[in-house]
Amino acid sequence: MSGSNNRALSPHIKDRTYLVKNSLTGPADSLYKYLRAAIARADHIRFLAAFITESGARLLAKPLREAAERGAVVKILTGTYMNTTEPYALEYLMEKVGTGLTIRSYSETGRSFHAKAYFFDYPEDSEVFISSANLSWTALTTGVEWSYRLRKSQARQDYKEFSQEFDRLERDQSVLVTQEFLREYERARREQAQK
Fold first, then answer.
1. What's the CA gap between 115 and 65, in Å, rounded?
2. Is residue 91 part of a domain?
3. What is the structure's pLDDT at 2?
4. Is residue 24 part of a domain?
5. How confident is the model at residue 1 (pLDDT cuts 50, 70, 90)?
6. Beta strand pairing call for 101-106 and 174-176
7. What is the pLDDT of residue 110?
8. Is 151 in a helix, a strand, or coil?
């Protein structure tokens, strides 16, 4: 690895294991530190998370804002399956990360949406963490969650299939999260909770 690449990684990586390890089984080796290091150097960031909680939003808002401020494209595709995503978590991310962030919600009804994957594109390569972890503080830090990192340079076709499927879901089966979307979703959650 070149010296310039090491300098780009060093502020967020205390353990060089990040550079070589692909299988993560937490909680001793949590996904969060890998996501934080990847966010710090990626040009294009895409998160696919079945649900997002306020705790997860608070954990990642600052690094995502820093990425957006340096010009990285940041996209999140989440869902409202079982009403688990917290509306305030989405609102918080929109407010704190700013206009560099696009959030969309899976829109197909009658089908479960439970995928989790975290994509990062760099000038020299790309990688995706396929994970059991949603965007919550517990899942990303102390929970028993398994994740596997797949690098495009080492498994080009596999990476391509995951990446293209993310793009298809975003393009064909999602809606933009807006303030109006959040109001409607919050209303639906309240109605469901009262049943």
1. 24
2. yes
3. 37
4. yes
5. very low
6. antiparallel
7. 85
8. strand
CA dihedral 7, 131, 29, 82 (to 10 degrees): 120
Residue 115 belongs to some domain of the structure: yes
Question: For the chain, how many structural domains are there in total?
Answer: 1
* Nearest-angstrom CA–CA distance, 17 and 144: 19
Identify the domain containing residue 160 by its residue range.
20-194
pLDDT at 13 > cutoff 50? no
* Residues in a beta bridge with 77: 48, 104
Q: Is 8 inside a domain boundary?
A: no
> Is the pLDDT reported for residue 5 higher than 80?
no
- Cα 149 to its chain centre, rounded Å, is 13
Q: The domain spanning residue 112 has which CATH number?
A: 3.30.870.10
**Structure tokens, 106:** 């899976």
Q: Which amino acid is at 34?
A: Y
Lowest mean pLDDT among 20-34, 112-126, 170-184: 20-34
DSSP state at residue 106: E
Identity of residue 22: N
Q: Look up residue 161 and give its two tokens.
A: 């299939």
Instruction: Indicate if the pLDDT at residue 163 is higher than 50.
Output: yes
List helix spans (H) across the chain. 3-9, 31-39, 54-69, 87-97, 137-141, 156-172, 179-194
